[in-house]
């Protein structure tokens, strides 16, 4: 990753962490906290290892939100 990519990752993960905290979605908040730290450390291996879990948690969160509106 280029330096600007790491900066973007830090900002995005920080933003999602805050938003998920507002929604009381602890698993997503905790994962984004880990991802934010990985971005700060520019740790590509850790970021790649966390990404599949991010996709999973986002899907579960989306499903839960959709169920609450049906």
The N- and C-terminal alpha carbons lie at a distance of: 41 Å
Strand content: under 5%
Helix content: over 70%
The number of E-state strands comes to 0
Q: Which structural class best describes the helix and strand composition?
A: mainly alpha
Number of helices: 3
Show unreliable segments: none
Q: Over the alpha carbons, how many angstroms does the gyration radius reach?
A: 13 Å
Query: How would a textbook summarize the main sheet?
Result: none
User: Which geometry do the CA atoms define?
Assistant: elongated
Mean pLDDT: 93
What sequence of helices (H) and strands (E) makes up the elements?
A: HHH
List keywords for this structure.
70 residues; mainly alpha
Describe this structure in words.
The structure is a single chain. Helices cover 86% and strands 0% of the residues. The protein is built from 3 helices and no strands. α2 (26-40) packs antiparallel against α3 (44-68). The longest helix has 25 residues, at 44-68. The N and C termini lie far apart (41 Å). The mean pLDDT is 93.
What's this model, at a glance?
By secondary structure, this protein is mostly helical. 86% of the residues lie in helices and 0% in strands. The mean pLDDT is 93.
Topology:
Blueprint: H1 3-22, H2 26-40, H3 44-68
């Amino acid at each position: 990753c280029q330096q600007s990519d790491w900066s973007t990752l830090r900002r995005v993960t920080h933003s999602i962490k805050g938003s998920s905290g507002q929604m009381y979605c602890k698993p997503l908040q905790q994962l984004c906290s880990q991802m934010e730290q990985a971005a700060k450390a520019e740790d590509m291996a850790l970021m790649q290892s966390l990404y599949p879990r991010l996709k999973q948690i986002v899907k579960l969160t989306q499903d839960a939100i959709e169920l609450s509106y049906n």
